[in-house]
Amino acid sequence: MTFQISPLDDHHDRAAFDCGVEPLDRYLKTQAGQDVRKRVASCFVLTEVGPAPIAFYTLTSTSIALHDLPTSMAKKLPRYPSVPATLMGRLAVDRRHRGRRLGELMIMDAFSRALRSEIATCAFVVDAKNETAERFYKAYAFLPLGETGNRFFMPMAEIAKIFA
Protein backbone atom coordinates (compact mmCIF):
# COMPACT_ATOMS: atom_id res chain seq x y z
CA MET A 1 0.00 0.00 0.00
CA THR A 2 1.05 3.58 -0.58
CA PHE A 3 1.03 5.92 2.38
CA GLN A 4 0.76 9.67 2.17
CA ILE A 5 1.46 12.11 4.99
CA SER A 6 0.04 15.56 4.40
CA PRO A 7 -1.18 18.58 6.34
CA LEU A 8 -4.70 18.18 7.67
CA ASP A 9 -7.29 19.93 5.53
CA ASP A 10 -11.05 19.96 4.99
CA HIS A 11 -11.06 16.99 2.60
CA HIS A 12 -9.83 14.57 5.28
CA ASP A 13 -12.72 12.49 6.66
CA ARG A 14 -11.95 12.26 10.37
CA ALA A 15 -15.27 10.85 11.57
CA ALA A 16 -14.24 7.18 11.76
CA PHE A 17 -10.83 7.73 13.39
CA ASP A 18 -10.51 5.65 16.57
CA CYS A 19 -7.19 5.31 18.36
CA GLY A 20 -8.84 4.12 21.56
CA VAL A 21 -7.89 7.24 23.52
CA GLU A 22 -10.98 9.43 23.63
CA PRO A 23 -9.22 12.82 24.10
CA LEU A 24 -7.02 12.14 21.04
CA ASP A 25 -9.99 10.96 18.95
CA ARG A 26 -12.00 14.03 19.97
CA TYR A 27 -9.07 16.34 19.25
CA LEU A 28 -8.68 15.11 15.67
CA LYS A 29 -12.43 15.15 15.00
CA THR A 30 -13.34 18.49 16.58
CA GLN A 31 -10.32 20.65 17.44
CA ALA A 32 -7.42 19.97 15.06
CA GLY A 33 -8.96 21.84 12.12
CA GLN A 34 -9.49 24.93 14.27
CA ASP A 35 -5.93 24.77 15.61
CA VAL A 36 -4.59 24.60 12.06
CA ARG A 37 -6.75 27.52 10.86
CA LYS A 38 -5.73 29.62 13.88
CA ARG A 39 -2.07 28.62 13.43
CA VAL A 40 -1.90 27.23 16.96
CA ALA A 41 -0.57 23.86 15.76
CA SER A 42 0.28 22.07 12.55
CA CYS A 43 -1.46 18.73 12.13
CA PHE A 44 -0.24 16.04 9.76
CA VAL A 45 -2.29 13.00 8.82
CA LEU A 46 -1.37 9.65 7.34
CA THR A 47 -3.73 8.23 4.73
CA GLU A 48 -3.55 4.98 2.83
CA VAL A 49 -6.64 4.73 0.65
CA GLY A 50 -9.06 7.61 0.43
CA PRO A 51 -9.35 10.66 2.66
CA ALA A 52 -9.67 8.92 6.05
CA PRO A 53 -6.65 9.46 8.33
CA ILE A 54 -5.19 6.33 9.91
CA ALA A 55 -2.68 8.27 12.04
CA PHE A 56 -1.90 11.86 12.93
CA TYR A 57 0.49 14.06 14.86
CA THR A 58 0.74 17.73 15.74
CA LEU A 59 3.73 20.05 15.84
CA THR A 60 4.05 23.39 17.54
CA SER A 61 6.78 25.47 19.09
CA THR A 62 7.69 25.34 22.75
CA SER A 63 10.59 26.25 24.98
CA ILE A 64 12.68 24.31 27.46
CA ALA A 65 14.06 25.82 30.65
CA LEU A 66 17.82 25.54 30.39
CA HIS A 67 18.01 23.99 33.88
CA ASP A 68 15.74 21.12 32.72
CA LEU A 69 18.29 19.93 30.16
CA PRO A 70 21.11 17.55 31.00
CA THR A 71 24.21 19.51 32.04
CA SER A 72 26.20 18.08 29.13
CA MET A 73 23.76 19.66 26.67
CA ALA A 74 23.00 22.85 28.61
CA LYS A 75 26.66 23.85 28.88
CA LYS A 76 26.89 23.96 25.06
CA LEU A 77 23.98 26.39 24.76
CA PRO A 78 23.73 30.14 25.37
CA ARG A 79 22.85 31.05 28.94
CA TYR A 80 19.26 32.07 28.15
CA PRO A 81 16.58 31.14 30.69
CA SER A 82 14.99 28.90 28.05
CA VAL A 83 15.79 27.59 24.59
CA PRO A 84 13.50 26.91 21.61
CA ALA A 85 12.20 23.44 20.84
CA THR A 86 9.65 21.69 18.66
CA LEU A 87 6.77 19.98 20.47
CA MET A 88 4.95 16.98 19.06
CA GLY A 89 1.92 17.47 21.26
CA ARG A 90 -0.13 14.57 19.94
CA LEU A 91 0.57 11.31 18.13
CA ALA A 92 -2.08 8.67 17.50
CA VAL A 93 -2.61 5.64 15.26
CA ASP A 94 -6.07 4.27 14.53
CA ARG A 95 -6.41 1.02 16.49
CA ARG A 96 -7.37 -0.89 13.32
CA HIS A 97 -3.90 -0.14 11.94
CA ARG A 98 -1.73 -0.89 14.97
CA GLY A 99 1.22 -3.23 14.64
CA ARG A 100 2.23 -1.79 11.26
CA ARG A 101 4.96 0.53 12.64
CA LEU A 102 2.95 3.58 11.65
CA GLY A 103 3.90 5.40 14.86
CA GLU A 104 7.54 5.07 13.83
CA LEU A 105 6.71 6.34 10.33
CA MET A 106 4.95 9.36 11.84
CA ILE A 107 7.82 10.15 14.22
CA MET A 108 10.36 9.97 11.39
CA ASP A 109 8.20 12.32 9.32
CA ALA A 110 7.91 14.72 12.26
CA PHE A 111 11.68 14.57 12.82
CA SER A 112 12.25 15.36 9.15
CA ARG A 113 9.86 18.32 9.20
CA ALA A 114 11.41 19.71 12.40
CA LEU A 115 14.91 19.33 10.99
CA ARG A 116 13.98 21.09 7.72
CA SER A 117 12.22 23.93 9.50
CA GLU A 118 13.54 27.43 8.97
CA ILE A 119 12.86 28.20 12.63
CA ALA A 120 15.67 27.46 15.07
CA THR A 121 15.02 24.65 17.51
CA CYS A 122 17.51 22.73 19.64
CA ALA A 123 15.33 19.80 20.70
CA PHE A 124 12.27 17.75 19.80
CA VAL A 125 9.88 17.37 22.75
CA VAL A 126 7.05 14.89 23.35
CA ASP A 127 4.50 14.43 26.11
CA ALA A 128 3.80 10.82 27.02
CA LYS A 129 0.08 10.65 27.77
CA ASN A 130 0.31 7.20 29.39
CA GLU A 131 2.74 4.35 30.13
CA THR A 132 2.33 2.87 26.65
CA ALA A 133 3.36 6.18 25.09
CA GLU A 134 6.26 6.49 27.52
CA ARG A 135 7.59 3.04 26.54
CA PHE A 136 7.19 3.93 22.86
CA TYR A 137 9.23 7.15 23.18
CA LYS A 138 11.90 5.51 25.32
CA ALA A 139 12.29 2.80 22.67
CA TYR A 140 13.33 5.59 20.27
CA ALA A 141 15.93 6.95 22.72
CA PHE A 142 13.97 9.95 23.97
CA LEU A 143 15.41 11.28 27.24
CA PRO A 144 13.47 12.49 30.30
CA LEU A 145 13.01 16.25 30.41
CA GLY A 146 12.83 18.02 33.74
CA GLU A 147 11.04 16.49 36.66
CA THR A 148 7.51 16.18 35.30
CA GLY A 149 7.91 12.49 34.51
CA ASN A 150 5.89 12.52 31.31
CA ARG A 151 7.89 14.91 29.11
CA PHE A 152 10.77 13.60 26.99
CA PHE A 153 13.11 15.09 24.42
CA MET A 154 15.67 14.31 21.76
CA PRO A 155 18.37 16.83 20.79
CA MET A 156 18.07 18.05 17.20
CA ALA A 157 21.74 17.11 16.76
CA GLU A 158 20.76 13.46 17.31
CA ILE A 159 17.89 13.76 14.85
CA ALA A 160 20.27 15.24 12.28
CA LYS A 161 22.43 12.11 12.61
CA ILE A 162 19.44 9.92 11.70
CA PHE A 163 19.12 11.71 8.37
CA ALA A 164 22.85 12.12 7.66
Structure description:
The structure is a single chain. With 164 residues, the protein is α+β, with helices and mostly antiparallel strands. 31% of the residues lie in helices and 27% in strands. It has a single domain, classed as Gcn5-related N-acetyltransferase (GNAT) (Aminopeptidase, 3-Layer(aba) Sandwich). Strands 1-2-3-4-5-7-6 form a seven-stranded mixed β-sheet, sandwiched between helices. The radius of gyration is 16 Å and the shape is globular.
Number of helices: 5
Uncertain runs:
none
The second-level CATH architecture is 3-Layer(aba) Sandwich
CATH fold call? Aminopeptidase
Largest sheet: 7 strands, mixed
What's the end-to-end separation, in Å? 27 Å
Count of DSSP E strands? 7
Mean pLDDT figure? 94
Question: What percentage of the residues does DSSP assign to strands (E)?
Answer: 25-35%
CATH homologous superfamily name? Gcn5-related N-acetyltransferase (GNAT)
Order of helices and strands: EHEEHEHEHEEH
Structural class, by secondary structure, is alpha+beta
Which properties best describe this structure?
single chain, 164 residues, alpha+beta, Aminopeptidase, seven-stranded mixed sheet, 5 helices
Quick overview:
By secondary structure, this protein is an alpha+beta fold.
Question: Any chance you could write out the topology, listing elements then pairs?
Answer:
Blueprint: E1 4-7, H1 22-37, E2 42-47, E3 55-65, H2 71-74, E4 82-93, H3 102-116, E5 123-127, H4 131-139, E6 143-144, E7 151-155, H5 156-162
Parallel strand pairs: 4-5
Antiparallel strand pairs: 1-2, 2-3, 3-4, 5-7, 6-7
